[in-house]
Amino acid sequence: MTPIDRLLGIMAKLRDPDGGCPWDLEQTFATIAPYTIEEAYEVADAIERGDMGELKSELGDLLFQTVFHARMAEEAGLFGFDDVANAMSDKLVRRHPHVFADEAAKGDAVEQKARWEDIKAAERAAKAQHGVLDDVPVGLPALARAAKLTKRAARVGFDWPSTDEVFDKLDEEVGELKAEIAAGDLDKAREEMGDLLFVVANLARKLGVEPEDALRDANAKFVRRFGFIEAELAKDGRTPDQSDLTEMDGLWDAAKVAEKAGPAG
Q: CATH class for domain 3-87?
């Protein structure tokens, strides 16, 4: 028995109405979807931390999510795990003619990327997805989806010529947000905040930066520097709520200096 056959068998047993797990039996595509997203993030987290042992475990958890969805689909007479694997294999072969079939399709990375996009466009047309933005997944994290939406629109020429125009738009959105805050209209301020974040995602895309990755790094930096503040205050037997903004701001600056100095500093 192969490892994947063993996993498929375990999943089938968990979903067996006769002796299976009550929790697993209650699940649907909709209830499992949040766990699938969570497992994908945990894979990314293990990679970020460089923990290869944890990555092995998290990849297993993510694989189990695929097996879970495939099992529910099989029970509904829709498709099974083999269909999922075959569909992925077919897609990879179709999208890589320069590797699997057409010698004439060989070229540099830029040419291959352009051909990849042409193939994907043909696939969207075959699915009757005629809109440029039709298949940008709604379930993506909002910041990542914003960058993907602007990237897709840019392919058909709907894009600012340079980052200069994006910065101008950024200034405009900041001004509009300030105006709504000053007017006390929090509903409109929320809308303007969304517009501002969308422009930031667009700027990231123009710079070749993945906004989710950049924000993840910023989050890690914040956690690291705030931990420095807590550690410094703990030397005096205090916690942040026993300090004040001026002191913590100074410790924040000290954390930045310590980071620049590095371990040897």
A: mainly alpha
